[in-house]
Design goal:
169 residues; four-stranded antiparallel beta sheet
């Protein structure tokens, strides 16, 4: 190339000639150039509305750049129909009924045998605790049904009491 300086008109003519040879549309003579102001007051090549600072979005003259719009993420109709308790019905839980507690030394445990009585911290007839996954969730009374033991739930333990018991344990 030569060191000759071209005027703006000569550069525009070269660009339109190159565009015509490659089949591209000629630039609009009325469109603002890179150093001119666009009609909306923004300079060409400036960051578009919603673009991160420091990011330039180059657009064709007359094209408006807008931030992407996405639909909110939600639950599909099929998942909603299966939702609720159905999702956890097959989850295994460890349920324990606690009649009472006591502390024994190893020698006392080794001395236990058939017919031995272990004294608990509760009296006969007091409610027993129903514990699910190591958290007390209810109280109930022991019942015998066809020579099997069971528990009749008499009270559900509220969240505050569960939290207090968890801190105490």
């Amino acid at each position: 190339m030569s060191d000759e300086v071209l005027s703006q008109e000569e550069m525009d003519a070269l660009i339109s000639q190159a565009g015509a040879e490659s089949g591209e549309a000629k630039p609009d003579a009325n469109a603002p150039q890179a150093d001119e102001q666009a009609p909306d007051g923004e300079e060409q090549g400036e960051a578009a509305e919603g673009a991160a600072p420091g990011i330039r979005i180059e657009t064709e003259p007359g094209t408006v750049a807008r931030p992407a719009e996405f639909n909110p993420v939600g639950v599909s109709a099929g998942a909603a129909a299966r939702g609720g308790m159905d999702l956890i019905l097959d989850v295994n839980l460890q349920v324990t009924v606690e009649l009472g507690r006591t502390l024994l030394k190893v020698r006392d445990v080794l001395a236990l045998g058939p017919g031995a009585v272990v004294e608990l911290d509760r009296h006969a007839g007091e409610p027993v605790d129903v514990v699910v996954n190591n958290k007390a969730v209810a109280r109930g009374e022991v019942v015998v049904i066809d020579e099997n033991f069971g528990v009749r739930i008499t009270e559900i333990i509220d969240k505050e009491e569960r939290d207090a018991r968890a801190k105490a344990a």
